[in-house]
Amino acid sequence: MTHDFDTRPGRAGPLNLRDMGAFHVGGQAVQLQGLASTREVLAAGGEPVLLDPNGSYWVGQMYAQYFLPQAPASTTPLQLWHGGGLTGACWETTPDGRPGWLHYFVRRGWDTYLCDAAERGRAGYAPRQLWGAPLSQTAEAVFARFRLGESLEGVALADAARQAFAESQFPAEAFEALVRQLVPRWAHTDAVILDAYQALLERVAPSALVCHSQGGMFGLTMAQRRPDRVRAVVALEPAAVPAPSDEDAAYAVPTLIILGDRIDGDARWPAMRARIEAFAARHASVEILSLPDLGMRGNSHMLMMDRNQLDIADLVHDWLARRLKS
């Protein structure tokens, strides 16, 4: 019995690396004083431990993994920045088990850095006394907000596919796997996250950034602030764009903003798209790519997870290769 394998670049084959590893970067030491100690049992059946919360903490750091292909095709490293309520896991494997964009771009020869932003995942987060309580998103809210379907109210997570939009590219039968990736977040830590990303860019730069949703705003902002450290930005449905300002007027980093489908019928995205279009109109270096205009229908907010995610990755790779050729 024979099988037809997809031999297009980035689809399959071994991941041949010259190196891989991880590190934390950024953040600062802070002190807490004047707080009461408590006794806590830290393991079932163990003896209570006196926990004194007063003292030194390191907060605001971020986590980065790197995967360096054996035969790099570009001298510019690529950084993958995730969106709100997510971690770098969103780039690793799709909810239904297909290799994610991390695999794709390493196979295409990019030195690739996978990030957990400050206050997410393996970056860790600050004590509650410093940042307060985090925000969490319900599965129902995510289902609608990510434009997977109209509503999941009253439907079991395992039955999400029955509620998905017709011709949706998102693998809604694996929606539970996406929900497992969701993590708490904070609404007031943008400056902390940006400081950590800037520390990363000081260490690994100049880089190209591929960023999603909330991460899109961070990528555009860092390109605005540090054009010497950012060579190009690909923003997948950025949740916001820099507002007009003297700093914004100088924006000149090559930028591609990619938008998916069903924006017109969404409660929030028409206004968000209008701001994106105004941002592009102010800057000759910014391009907008609407996937429906290319005949690619059904894409959700989670472009890197959709069934045609490798076709979108091809568009990103080819655009970056053209912009970084010089």
Tally of contiguous helical segments: 10
Largest sheet: 8 strands, mixed
Strand content: 15-25%
Residue runs with pLDDT of under 50 for 5 or more positions: none
Strand sequence of the main sheet, in spatial order? 1-6-8-7-9-10-11-12
Shape summary: globular
Terminal CA distance reads 47 Å
Which percent bin holds the helix content? Answer: 25-40%
What is the averaged pLDDT score?
95
Q: Would you count the extended β strands for me?
A: 12
Class inferred from helices and paired strands: alpha/beta
Radius of gyration: 21 Å
| H/E element order | EEEEEEEHEHHHHHEHEHEHEH
Structural features, described:
The protein is 27% helix and 20% strand. The chain has helices at residues 101-107, 128-131, 139-145, 160-163, 175-181, 190-203, 214-225, 246-249, 269-282, 309-323, and strands spanning 17-25, 28-32, 38-40, 49-51, 55-59, 62-69, 78-81, 112-116, 207-212, 230-236, 255-259, 286-290. The strands form three sheets. It has an eight-stranded mixed beta sheet, sandwiched between helices. Strands 2-5 form a two-stranded antiparallel ribbon.
Features of the shown structure:
single chain, 326 residues, alpha/beta, two-stranded antiparallel sheet, 12 strands
